[in-house]
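Form 7-S
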Amino acid sequence: MKVRAAVLHAMGAVSPYAISRPLRIEDVDLAPPGYGEVRVAIKAAGLCHSDLSVINGDRPRPMPMVLGHEAAGVVDALGPGVNDLAVGDHVVMVFMPSCGHCQPCAVGRPALCEPGAVANGAGTLLSGERRWRHMGAAVNHHLGVSAFAEMAVMSRRSLVKIDRDLPFAQAALFGCAVLTGVGAVVNTAKVPAGASVAVVGLGGVGLSSVLGAIAAGASRVVAIDLAEDKLQLAKSLGASDVFNAGSAEVAEAVRSATGGGCEFVFEMAGSAKAMELAYKITRRGGTTVTAGLPPPQATMALPLVNLVAEERTVKGSYIGTAVPSRDIPRFIEMFRNGKLPVDRLLSGTFALDQINEGFDQLAAGMAVRQVVLM
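Output:
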């Protein structure tokens, strides 16, 4: 079948993207779902820095590719072997499929699925197949999802069924921003009630971490970013303190205000400079968690004696160390109970044809979470 999709043919386009148009809206051939696969009618897809990092070349992927990885939609067709979903079911996409059999999956860490990581890097589905073609040539999948399209085929293991009453624009956020940001707090760091928390980088993931820390009962939540509007949004969401990262004395200011730094600090900006700041404002005996995904060549020097003498912990967090089939329903229920007001992270919605303009807004730091509505 023919499907309208946003296809990236080459990385490294010059901004503004509204002029260079790196994402082309094209009619792409979509094959039927194979064994263990599902065709989904995409209803809403969020714009994330992980998409932008492919467009600008920071995270190389095989080209051409249909981008998009944070989405919600409706099951349209089932491939052989799929018997626990039905046509018409509402689903949220997860950008790391889990095979259920490799060593990480077997010990309850599906975010680290080894076959899933291989498939994502190769631009295929978990099966190793590609279901997109354009002008006779194969087109790659983005993180097993490729949500910037009217329809997409993906592994059953990339989908979590949700209730039908949740609006699609809100549901989409749970597949990446909320799963990663809240998960980093409650799963990776296991922040206890009464702890002090700081978050560096207030995009959709970072602000989700702010919400997660508040929901976890943190006694103090410090929010740090370069954009004043995001700092004010964090304050309105419940952050106790906000600091502009552009100040040369920001680390000293945070440490002074918190009596030596915070017990848990989350780096969500995706840069070495942000990670260095996060480490500096972590107190003795504290934990620094990063989920920001900087370019592969980014490095950071750690003072090892400080790491030892202060019993510091530095941890990575991928997809919030989540078990998506467990965590997405839990986080949705918290949202419904008013404990995770993720709807306030929505900056706006627009049509697929406006997607390049949307990425200009994201690249300029002018949006938290924008959503394409199909």
